[in-house]
Amino acid sequence: MSTRPAPARRPAVPTAALLAGLAAVVLTGCAVGQQAQTYQEKAVADATNNSVGAISVRNLAIAGPSEGTVLKAGSDAPMSVSLINSSTDPDELLSARSPAASSVDIVGPGTTVPVPGLQAASPAYSLVLRGLTQDLPTGTYVSLTLSFARNGTKELLVPVQVTPGGVPRPTGTFQVPEEDSAGKPIVR
Fold this sequence. Notes:
Elements: H1 15-27, E1 48-52, E2 55-62, E3 70-71, E4 77-85, E5 91-97, E6 101-107, E7 113-115, E8 126-132, E9 136-137, E10 141-148, E11 152-159
Antiparallel strand pairs: 1-2, 2-4, 3-9, 4-8, 5-7, 5-10, 6-8, 10-11
């Protein structure tokens, strides 16, 4: 009579340890993709919109390079901006400065930018970053400080546009279809 050896016994794994290991495996796959709690989508900005007191600063941007993807150090960069005063009291932009340029020039009929009171037309002025102190790749942001006579001073982050003049917007007209996707006439 031969006896079979008893099968080898595995050491018992405590249930708590087994569950902890399983939880670790399951949790390592959590929170991936765009629905994760830590995911934050960042908009690619074409321009900055902000306020300095009663002055709305709209469409503030550095014109991107006409060729390539970098504005070179030492060059000049024009900026676009619209200033809208929501107060009846006129104001004026006294100065602008940026660590990314040797100076920021106000280009127009004067050395300051008048910002008339509510419902008055603004004169045509522009800002130019003169003598860039560093290369500015498109899609990056530059610090710019605007100082107004009445509404104070504020530092803003200004994007270097990817496309000179901003992202092209669709133009033309949209033709309203006469039929829906099932071929039925659309009643207007």
